[in-house]
Write a structure and sequence with these properties.
single chain; 291 residues
């Protein structure tokens, strides 16, 4: 159960990040701390690998295919997944963005089945259906520009879930050959950071950019870095399905933290409670029925 516990702590970290992203938006001038979070992830994983890693640096040349898997996982999680998560959270709020991330297991199931030969049972399939039902329940109506923003934010949230599911699968594939979570996280962070820089360069936005370094951005970076490292370590002993399912619990952490700080915006909490129960029940079914 060690892997499942690590995945649970990762969910706590991501739940906290969902709230601090919203708090940091008020003082953000540029990227709302995305670059800082990538740099901190690389620094943390490098420190862990240097102190306790069991894979030498020459593995970069000895196992290029596995390095490629780790790098691709970094692009999916740090570049595609993290950026879309940031933008979705800014657009539709921490709780609803976290709720959409509950779709991650739905995407992870077929990917793990194809790439890792994980065969889901009836409970797993039914659990995924309940998660989808929970997502559909929480769809508060918006008007005008807010409706357009909600649609865009929802699309980004769904895309983020798919990207993270792909990253989980790629990480698990790489860990079969090089079972060093810190090393894999480091490779992914470097690749994801490079992808971010390349994308900014293609848009002509590198010159004159100043990454946001406010207090909330540092806290967000710490939460996201811890979450990514913990999830990588969780995949050493837990299945992709289990890690993805437990990761969706972040919606309750975000909701609890928002309640603690008195943020009651983005109303319709009755719908949120009902959808949360459906999604939570689906998560339990997925967990109990995992391969």
């Amino acid at each position: 159960m060690a892997g499942e516990m690590l995945a649970l702590f990762a969910a706590l970290s991501y739940g906290g990040a969902g709230v601090t992203i919203m708090q940091g938006r008020a003082t953000a001038r540029d990227d709302n701390g995305v670059a800082l979070s990538v740099a901190m992830t690389a620094a943390l994983s490098f420190a862990l690998w240097s102190l306790w890693g069991n894979v030498p640096a020459r593995a970069i040349f000895d196992a290029p295919a596995t390095i490629g898997l780790f790098a691709l996982a970094g692009v999916f999680s740090i570049f595609l997944g993290r950026v879309t998560m940031y933008r979705a959270t800014e657009s539709i709020g921490a709780v609803r963005a976290a709720l959409l991330r509950r779709l991650t297991p739905v995407f992870a199931l077929p990917l793990a089945m194809i790439a890792l030969s994980e065969r889901p049972g009836a409970q797993t399939i039914f659990g995924g259906a309940m998660i989808v039902a929970g997502i559909l329940i929480y769809s508060p109506k918006q008007a005008g520009d807010r409706a357009e923003a909600a649609v865009a934010g929802t699309a980004l949230g769904i895309a983020s879930a798919a990207f993270y599911a792909a990253a989980y699968t790629l990480r698990a594939m790489g860990m079969r050959s090089l079972p060093d979570a810190a090393f894999g996280t480091l490779v992914g962070a470097i690749a994801g950071g490079a992808a971010l820089a390349l994308a900014a360069g293609l848009r002509g936005q590198i010159t004159g950019r100043r990454p946001d370094l406010g207090p909330w951005h540092w806290v967000t970076a710490a939460f996201l870095s811890a979450g990514q490292v913990l999830q990588f370590f969780a995949l050493k002993s837990a299945t992709v399905t289990a890690v993805a399912c437990l990761g969706t619990l972040e919606v309750f952490i975000s909701a609890a933290l928002l309640a603690c700080i008195g943020d009651n915006r983005r109303g319709s909490f009755n719908r949120l409670a009902l959808s949360g129960l459906a999604a939570f029940a689906g998560t339990l079914l997925l967990f109990s029925g995992r391969v």
